[in-house]
Amino acid sequence: MLAETICYAASAAGLGIAALTAYRRRFLAAARTAAYALVPAGLALTGIVQWLTGIVFDPAVWVGFGMLALAALLLVTTRAVERRRSGGSGKPAKKVRGASADAVAPAASRPSLGSTGPAAQGRGGRPDAAPADDFSDIEAILKKHGI
Predict the structure, then answer these.
(1) d(CA 99, CA 25)
(2) Do the Cβ atoms of 65 and 58 come closer than 8 Å?
(3) Is the pTM for the entire model greater than 0.85?
(4) Rounded to 10 degrees, what is the CA torsion of 47, 52, 54, 55?
(5) Residue 134: closest CA among 147, 122, 117, 116
(6) How many Cβ atoms from other residues are within 10 Å of residue 83's Cβ?
(7) CB contact at 8 A, 3 and 49
(8) Using one digit for the tens of pLDDT, what is the confidence trace for 81-93?
(9) CA atoms within 13 A of residue 11's CA, in its CB half-sphere
(10) Is residue 83 within 8 Å of 89, Cβ to Cβ?
């Protein structure tokens, strides 16, 4: 009963503000203010305000909300513990079939494949340049910029 009275008072105040706004010839703003002012009275008349006050002031409802919060807390906690035990992911780690520990990646560099034979040599059948020569183009660029 008190909540509905407050809603009606808020609506009346809002309609008064809308009337003052219309008096100043700001009709669009007045219509918008009147629309917002009618919302509390509409909620009171439909019974939504009574339903909300019944939820807020009923201790059994708060016990129910507490139980829901406890259930959510337990679910989150058990999921976190499960992830920690399984090593970070929610599912157990799967082992890859057919992969051996000493397998070489297809795009591995020649030194990891054991560079022997003609495939490991550069153009013209000569061995690849030494690692120090690999940085010669970088050195040239640095010298060009005065570094």
Answers:
(1) 81
(2) no
(3) no
(4) 150
(5) 122
(6) 13
(7) yes
(8) 999 998 765 555 5
(9) 15
(10) yes
